Amino acid sequence: MKIEQFDFFLPDELIATHPIEPRDHARLLHVTSNDLSDHHVFDLPDLLKPNDLIVYNNSKVIPARLYGHRAGLTGKVEILLHKNIGGSKWEAWAKPARKLEIGGTLIFADDFKARIIDKPDTGFVHIDFNMKPSELFQKLDLYGLPPLPPYIKREAIKKDTETYQTIYAKHEGSVAAPTAGLHFTPDLMKALRDKNIKMTEVTLHVGAGTFKPVMVEDTDDHVMHAEFGEISQETADLINQTKHNGGRIVAVGTTSTRLLETASNDDGLVEPYCDETAIFITPGYHFKCVDVLMTNFHLPKSTLFMLVSAFMSKDKMQSTYAHAIEKRYRFFSYGDACLLEL
Q1: DSSP letters along 155-179, please?
Q2: DSSP characters for 63-124?
Q3: CA triplet 97, 99, 102: central angle to 5 degrees?
Q4: What is the spatial distance between Cα 109 and Cα 144, in angstroms, rounded to a whole number?
Q5: Is residue 190 within a helix (H) or strand (E), and if so which, with residue range?
Q6: Mean pLDDT by 10 residues, the chain (342 residues)
Q7: Which residues on neighbouring strands pair with residue 257, listed in sequence order?
Q8: Maximal CA-CA distance, the chain
Q9: Residues β-bridged to residue 30
Q10: How far is CA 328 from CA 38, 167, 217, in A?
Q11: Which residues of 269-304 are buried (b: 16+ CB within 10 A; e: fewer)?
Q12: Separation between Cα atoms, residue 170 and residue 57, nearest integer Å
């Protein structure tokens, strides 16, 4: 399909640069095959059904943006960690990458350095921090910054460390937040449980490739970035039991959706999973597991807008986004959300 079919005009002032507080007071656009209705996230318990199962992504965002310099030189180097490639080794987006040489050393602080071990692709490097992962995360907490998306045109502040993180974040590894989950609060989760709506968790570590623009003219030519995901036996059993009992699977975010669809067989049953996924979902895809999708509003011509267009139909999502723009919904990571129901 032509990428241009997934384009739309978004006024800059609708790009959210800070989150709504409290989190669950963000707006929520409920979308069904024949209706649109305006709500808030705190209305979610009334929009879902008893015995629905919410599946959220418990990956934790790390302070993945680092600023330093090359050993012996003064020019600033910006590093955005992309994904772990084993132990203390990471793939990272670098600026300016062309000036970095294999074997060179990057200095972020007197006690925090990394060696460049490879340059696998334009703009990317492989670096080795040469320390235990636990020590590395401690250093990132000291010297790293929250990896705010490039469309948020401001510097990260200390509060972003809290707000650009879900309240149920557990396993460190993401360099971008699973943003649909940013709207959840303890009060909302209690209200969901009180309605007999169950919850479970999966892990998918979001890579910086989620911000990578689609540079080709046709979806068939786009190469999707791979991300590591994990689904436990316990979670798989709960999902399958819910399906068996006639309940619906409610995925929180495109990350959870991509992982669930990767791990599902043709009968819609989920199997335990521990591997990377590079699934690219576009219109024409048959969803095997996910029945309801809660997600934020996505960028024009992005792989995520293609995914939601596959879930509801391209025309439906274009009209949905037109409504959201007319009603002044807030877009992207710190913005509002929609609830898509097949």
Answers
A1: ---TTHHHHTS-TT--EEEESS--G
A2: --EEEEEETT--SEEEEEEEEEEETTEEEEEEETGGG--TT-EEEEETTEEEEEEEEEETTE
A3: 80
A4: 11
A5: helix 186-194
A6: 96 97 98 96 98 97 95 93 92 92 96 96 92 94 92 90 97 94 98 97 89 86 92 98 97 98 95 97 97 98 97 97 98 98 91
A7: none
A8: 64
A9: 37, 339
A10: 11, 27, 30
A11: ebeebeeebebbbbbeeebbbbbbbbbbbbbeebbb
A12: 9
Residue 276 bridge partners (DSSP): 228
CA distances for 261 relative to 77, 251, 305, angstroms: 38, 10, 17
Residue with tokens 């992504």, as numbered in its chain: 57
Note the Cα 340 to chain centre separation in Å: 17
Q: How many residues are given for the chain?
A: 342
Q: 């986004």: which residue's tokens?
A: 321
Single-letter amino acid, residue 53: L
Q: Return d(Cα 31, Cα 318) in angstroms, integer.
A: 12
> Which two three-digit tokens encode residue 291?
């029945």
